[in-house]
Amino acid sequence: MAKIKHNNFLDTVDEVFSDATRKGILHLNSQDTKFTGNTIKVDGNKMYHFGTTGYLGLEQDERLKKAAMEAVDSYGTQFPLSKTYISHPLYQELEEKLRTMYANPVVITKNSTLGHIAVIPTAVRDEDAVILDHQVHWSVQNAVQPLKLRGIPVEMIRHNNLDMLEDKIKELQGKVSRIWYMADGVYSMYGDFAPVRELMDLSDKYPQLHFYFDDVHGMSWKGKNGTGYVLEAMGGNLPENVLLFGTLSKTFGASGAVLACSNAELQRKIKTYGGPLTFSAQLEPASVAAACASADIHLSQEIYMLQNELSERIDYFNRLLSNTDLPLVAENPSPVFYIGTGTPVTGYNFVKRMMKEGFFVNLGLFPAVPIKNTGVRITICRHNQKEEIEKLVEAMVYHYPRALEETDSSPERVRRAFRMPVSREEKVQSSAEIFEIQCETKISAIPKEEWDSLMGKNCFEWNGQLFLEKTLTANDIPENNWFFYYILIKDKNSGVPVLATFLSYSLWKDDMLSPVSVSEKLEEQRKREPYHMTSMVLSMGSLFTEGEHLYINKTNHRWKEALLLLLQKIEELEQELKPSMVVLRDFEEQTNLNSLFHEQGFMKVKMPESCVMDNLSWDTIEEYKASLSSRSRRHFTKEVEPFEKKFDICYMEQVPPDEVSHFYQLYQNVRNNNFGLNTFAYPFKLFAEMSKDPGWEFIVLYLKPEYENRDEPKAVGVMFCYKNSSGTYVPSLVGMDYKYSREFQVYRQLLFQTIKRARYLHFEKIDFGITASFEKRKLGAIVQPKVSYVQARDNFKLELLGIMEAGIKK
């Protein structure tokens, strides 16, 4: 379930960014005619600038500006020629100065993104492997993608998790030559550091271990000659097993990036034919000249004076924050600070308030952070004066609680979202005074008539849920033990239900919706580790049920408040159960709830299409055929109708035990041959209970004797159908003997017999559910696009499955 297909991922990011743009948070335009560094003007509002990554303020240094202007005057705006042929005159000067700074060979690149693309495929050999930190910058992860096409193993670990890193090293050490661990020195969202010293100790233990550090956010403000956090943490010496990236942009005040590499031969190879270094344009003369001027400052004692000035401001901001209740996610001596807001809607509100108050700050959004870990990213630079920092803190202390209140959040909810200590109980929300909320763990605690009047449209009516409770509890293995939560929210004054739903808490395979190739690979590993890449999930509805799992009475004008109260209740359950994901399903693709769910920290994920059939008013097969399109009619006449006479068709309610066993095997056949929806197998107990429950029946296909050589007939296909008391026929599961399935079109015949049976029993609708929508549509079903809304505790498994998929596609 965790896997989001690439286009779906892009659609999700587009929605997140578009929403933030509409709110006036992203894609803004500065209106300044001249920059000073400590202010910026947006929409006519001049604000103190707390969003820069020029931490030392060198981009406004007169020496750098003068050097850039003189370079333009001398050499023009660009030097339009590949460096493979010739570099413009200032390049060699800059390279020599950077080599002196790092005391090692260097490679200059156009920017860090192109630099990673040039260096990583050159440095990493075919016999190597790569391990990515979960939070390493996107530009590094993107540059790693081509390695998978070469068959290079690419793994991922949770952020700064050294135990997990060591486990991966142990798995790989006998299979590959070098193992590259790729991480940031200073992480750009929370401002936390890589555990460099501990990592170097690990490389002493495992000599195969090499490091690739992206230290662009640690550059200049830290280290000897401003060479960054990583090199300082290594004592100023660059080992041969480390490649170190710094930037000439951001704090350095110019443009471009720099790789430091103690291996002179590797440095030569990268410089000679490293991808974009060969085929891309070189840095403009103005950028190189500005970088030369900045390098002079870095090579002088002045850099330490600048570092100390920034450090004083960072320490001052940290001291001020420590005297507040603001949720600083990671306290570090870095210039990057992150104040958690939890949901995007709270983040929007807080940022807008701060901008209106005269402070420009950035919003941290998905996919840079998990969507429920939205927050305000504040950066401190030398341009920021102490009195401005004081005013910033005062404004945050004033506006933060008001942003929470206006968006129905609380400090406790935010702290729980970031797994920070909660010092007191959350105060009851005002909506609890308007609504009465009932949460039960047994369907028997809710009157049958009441539940069915609200939720009785599918197999999750009252009787259906009683059946699931009976069969999916008290079993021997974890995947077959489900927990249910039934929630009703009523208007306190009238007692009329405003909202109803149910949730299940159960074990899911993380690759449930991943491509078949990913699931096949994981299933091989699950033969040794049955619960590899599985997670507990709190889901609206359950894996057994499909359809409208949420009832909303929109005649009540406060229904949105009831829905927010439901989300708060789900959040309480999440804190108690600690699932890896919360999933709200199944909604129409164009639901008007999209914005509300997104603002509350859920991202939209496309689900497999659902199929329903509500045209059951025909009386004869000829009338049914006439209701189909001409193409579907031809398909039916050729691929379905002629095969019906080859079967004996039975409708069973009670089935002998040995026959139930055979039906179960047919179900397992289908499940094992269909990884398009990869779930755990249901227990045999569920199928045995179906035979005892009057709500279920079996449509069974037997081949006529002349078509098979068996002493006694055996079913070759079975449809497991639920008879909803409100007029919906639900074919929930299917089983087939694949020896006969293709030759006799068993699946298509089961679909057709389901349609005939539903019509015979006078049902008004068939809910065919998800998967195989192409086949169902050809028999007259209506295909309905469906989406779910997902809230993951972190993005780790999303990205890990993405890496697996890309690797398999090589």
Note the main attributes of this structure.
single chain; 810 residues; Aspartate Aminotransferase, domain 1; Aspartate Aminotransferase, domain 2; Aminopeptidase; 4 domains; seven-stranded mixed beta sheet; 27 helices; 39% helix; aminotransferase; AON_synthase_class-II; transaminase activity; PyrdxlP-dep_Trfase_small; Aminotransferase class I/II-fold pyridoxal phosphate-dependent enzyme
Structure description:
It comes from Autumnicola tepida. Its cofactor is pyridoxal 5'-phosphate. It holds the Pfam family Aminotran_1_2. With 810 residues, the protein is an alpha+beta fold. 39% of the residues lie in helices and 21% in strands. The chain is built from 27 helices and 26 strands. The strands form four sheets. Strands 14, 15, 16, 17, 18, 19, 20, 21, 22, 23, 24, 25 and 26 form a 13-stranded mixed beta sheet that branches. Helix 8 (229-233) links the parallel strand 7 (209-214) and strand 8 (242-247). Helix 17 crosses helix 24. The chain is globular and about 90 Å long. The two termini are 23 Å apart.
Main β-sheet description: 13 strands, mixed
CATH homologous superfamily heading of the largest domain = Gcn5-related N-acetyltransferase (GNAT)
Mean pLDDT: 91
Radius of gyration: 31 Å
User: How much helicity do the residues have?
Assistant: 25-40%
Q: Write down the overall geometry.
A: globular
| Helix and strand composition category | alpha+beta
Number of helices: 27
| Top CATH class of the largest domain | Alpha Beta
Strand content: 15-25%
Count of DSSP E strands? Answer: 26
Compute the separation of the termini in Å. 23 Å
Number of domains: 4
In terms of quaternary structure, the protein is single chain
CATH architecture of the largest domain: 3-Layer(aba) Sandwich
